[in-house]
Amino acid sequence: MQWSLSGLKSAFLNETAFRQEVILFFIFAPLGFWLGKNPVEKYMLVGSLLLVLIVELVNSAIESAVDRISEENHPLSGRAKDMGSAAVFLSLVNAVMTWILILSA
Hints:
mainly alpha
């Protein structure tokens, strides 16, 4: 648990995108609990937001590892970073779709 908390702290202090997503999580998670009509909807609304944070942490870890290996531009390094970014984008699309579909039902 100590290492997990250290990782969360490091991400919050060093990653602007993670900080922004944490702020949005603390705004929207209570709304998800309030707007969800049953436990499954509440879980889907809040869980979709939590998934964004998880994917952002994995993306940040990939970027840190790639940067640690070499600061030099390399096509594979760029590909790894782009794929991590794409994963974050898809998790955000998933969250938006989840909220729209549940709240419009």
